[in-house]
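Bug #77: duplicate submission created two jobs. Keeping one. Sequence:
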Amino acid sequence: MTIELLKKLFQKENVQELPFVLAFTGTCQDCGRETEVLATWKENGGIEITGGAVCDINKTGIPEEFSMKCEKCFKKNKHFGRRTEIYSRCVGYLRPVSQWNAGKQAEFKTRKFYDTKKALKAIS
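Kept job's structure:
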């Protein structure tokens, strides 16, 4: 969620007394735990966010479409949405890298990838 959207939400609530708190409740998209994220409007015009993170993936501003993460999951992975599955060749088969053993995954991280178009231009 952008700071601009949060400020619009605070203005929509017609903030009179400070500090003013907006509470977002729902389930964490990663672990499924009930989560409450608090956004507090401070006297200096700043916003403090505690308890995790809220994301408006579709940029609609509709609370029902917000996605949430608890603080623990947000610290582990700050990205919202689905994970991208990476497939690569391992012992002759295309397999998801996440299903490889630890040794093969470590080897995959050290692989160097080359741009074949650049290589072909260099040759010709």
